[in-house]
Amino acid sequence: MSDQPTLRGLDLEAHLADPARKQQFVTPMFDIIAPRYDAFTRLFSFGMDVGWKRELLDATLPRIARGGRVIDGACGTGDLAFQLQGRRPDLAITGVDASSRMIALAQSVAGASSATAHAASTSHGPRPTFSVGDLGALDVANASLDAISAGYGYRNTPDWRAALADAARAIKPGGHLATLDFYRPSNAAWRVLLLAYLRVAGELVGLAWHGHGIVYGYIAPSIAHFCTIAEWENELARLGFVIEARGIKLLGGVAWHVARRA
User: Fold this and answer.
1) Would you tell me how many other CB atoms lie within 10 Å of the CB of residue 92?
2) 125 band by pLDDT with thresholds 50, 70 and 90
3) pLDDT tens track for 6-32
4) Among 191, 250, 211, 251, which residue's Cα sits nearest to residue 51?
5) Which SS3 state, helix, strand or coil, does residue 100 take?
6) pLDDT of 105 higher than 50
7) Measured between alpha carbons, how far is residue 119 from residues 107, 111, 129, 231, 240 in Å?
8) d(CA 180, CA 169)
């Protein structure tokens, strides 16, 4: 944790275009932004992120088997994992993220929350556990999970199709995949406008907060290299998932999905 991560000398477009190199850019980027990641997510979405996640959880939680095992992939500082556990304390939830700094922050929040509850002598439910891991290649047995959740996760994997295939491997038949992410809008005019806004606004915040614009300016190019909602849903169907609920936001720029493994 003492060495300061850096993106200096890394070519963003070259790393996004090469699945073998993408993680070399993404991991240090998230290490850099970890301390202010949650604040940025709220700011950048004008607070809409809170509602999007609430809708996703409302649609997902009733569908997960009681006592189920859940992985929150690309968990960041644990925002979604803590909400999942808070509303369903019967679930065994593990958050995994490739960024060790994100995981350290999630673990510190979990530890502080448990210590506060213990000191107040109040009852409290279980806390999620957190570990460094790869959403695109989960270290779990085949058909061993009742659900996988991922907020803004699959877009940042080296190969989103391979990562979805791994989710299909890991989720039990009848289990669920719950995702929230930015997508490449299918309307060309709206795509240009949205990505231009995200690029400029992201770089301004990145410069102000971290002295390095690309840490948030990254979002627009990552969307440009990602898929449309239709392409995402077609891949889910190809892998044997049935979409049970979805919400499309920002004219196709953002969407959440709940899909069952058939």
Assistant:
1) 15
2) low
3) 887 889 999 999 999 999 999 999 999
4) 250
5) helix
6) yes
7) 18, 12, 20, 50, 47
8) 20
The b/e string for 187-220 (b: 16+ C-beta within 10 A; e otherwise) is eeeebeebbeebbebbbebbeebbebbbbbbbbb
Residue 234 to residues 82, 144, 230, 237, 240, Cα–Cα distance (Å) = 30, 24, 6, 5, 10
In whole angstroms, give the CA distance from residue 187 to residue 193. 10
Work out whether strand 92-97 and strand 69-73 pair parallel, antiparallel, or are unpaired.
Answer: parallel
Residue 174 predicted with pLDDT over 90: yes
Is the confidence at residue 253, as pLDDT, over 50? yes
- Residues 129 and 111: their CA atoms lie apart, in Å, by 10
SS3 242: strand
Strand-pair partners of 179: 150, 257
The answer to whether 16 touches 22, Cβ cutoff 8 Å, is yes
In 3D, which of 54, 31, 47, 33 has the Cα closest to residue 180?
Answer: 54
Mean pLDDT of the 41-64 span:
95
Q: 166 pLDDT exceeds 80?
A: yes
pLDDT (mean) for 130-150: 98
Helix 48-60 / helix 37-44 crossing angle, nearest 10 deg: 100
CB 259 within 8 A of CB 242: yes
Amino acid code (one letter) for 137: A
Q: How far apart are CA 158 and CA 251, in angstroms?
A: 26
DSSP state of 109: H
- Asked whether the whole model's pTM tops 0.70, one would answer yes
Angle between helical axes of 19-33 and 100-119 (0-180°, round to 10): 40
Closest CA to 67 of 98, 33, 90: 90
Is the distance from CB of 148 to CB of 73 less than 8 angstroms?
yes
